[in-house]
Amino acid sequence: xxxxxxxxxxxLAHAELMTLLPPREQESHKxxxxxxxxxxxxxxxxxxxxxxxxxxxxxxxxxxxxATKKEHAASLTLSRPELMCHxxxxxxxxxxxxxxxxxxxxGPGLGQTRxxxxxxxxxxxxxxxxxVDADGLNLLSRSPRKNKNWVLTPHVxxxxxxxxxxxxxxxxxxxxxxxxxxxxxxxxxxxxGSGSLVYGGGDDIxxxxxxxxxxxxxxxGDVLTGVIxxxxxxxxxxxxxxxxxxxxxxxxxxxxxxxGQRGLLASDLMQPIRELVxxx
Length: 280
Ligand SMILES: NC(=O)C1=CN([C@@H]2O[C@H](COP(=O)(O)OP(=O)(O)OC[C@H]3O[C@@H](n4cnc5c(N)ncnc54)[C@H](O)[C@@H]3O)[C@@H](O)[C@H]2O)[C@@H](O)CC1
Ligand SMILES: Nc1ncnc2c1ncn2[C@@H]1O[C@H](COP(=O)(O)OP(=O)(O)O)[C@@H](O)[C@H]1O
Known about the structure:
With about 280 residues, this protein is α/β, with parallel strands linked by helices. Helices cover about 45% and strands about 15% of the residues. A hairpin with a 5-residue loop joins strand 8 and strand 9. The termini are far apart. The structure holds ligand NAX and adenosine-5'-diphosphate. Ligand NAX binds next to helix 2, helix 6, helix 7 and helix 10. It catalyses: (6S)-NADPHX + ADP = AMP + phosphate + NADPH + H(+); (6S)-NADHX + ADP = AMP + phosphate + NADH + H(+).
């Protein structure tokens, strides 16, 4: 039986990561802080893309656009007017919006229909630095490919689909799983769950010791996608953005859970996320 390889585990620390976000210059304008485009929100799932969008704004992205189903654009705009929401029917419409953007996040509530896969393909064809989550990962598992300029954020179920094994197999050796995912798909991989792991190749696997089981509720992962995208838009490398996002997201959940883990909502993380990226 092969010997289990010992990896170097670095525990993520908020204070250290905050050096990546220097104070804003007095003369700054929104164009200095990047433009995120988030793609998703199929019927029944438009909350997912709404959560990702607000999270990208709350970490300080200058502009955030949403590409979603036509019937969702107006209600999303009403619920968060700072988001620029576009009803998008096809690849041409998506690519036109993407020309103004710096980073693309694909997957929250995207679904797995023909509409979903066509927008997923178009999003990757833009060549923008990307975050791929949720149904984006399910589409990736159907047609595996490698890219050095993306962050993949699987939960254990998605990781199992990507590696063609069971969720139990992933949990048996999470460090081996995150390395295998990165090796097969490239870029940076965040293996979510208690003790989330971040790996971008090389010797170090980063571990997040913050977070709590209150986070086991729908929409939490969608918020993480927005946080990573928003930090990438502000110029962080994909590895730094993933490390910082995982830490801020989990610490925000710990702050929000001070009144109890049960009943914690993904939306409850927005204000603590804002505090943490401002070092409060
Ligand atoms: N408000 C909304 O609109 C929401 C939309 N969502 C969207 O719903 C779609 C489906 O996503 P789901 O993640 O629910 O569906 P999946 O089928 O990908 O994942 C759910 C299953 O994954 C497995 N799993 C997940 N974490 C695990 C763990 N830590 N250990 C073991 N097994 C684990 C479990 O079997 C679980 O039932 C996505 O597009 C997603 O973005 C969800 O994010 C929930 C909220
Ligand atoms: N028990 C836990 N301890 C720490 N973090 C957790 C726990 N359960 C869930 N999380 C975190 O919450 C998020 C859940 O993401 P995900 O499963 O994709 O949710 P959704 O698809 O509903 O948005 C991940 O960031 C994960 O690390």
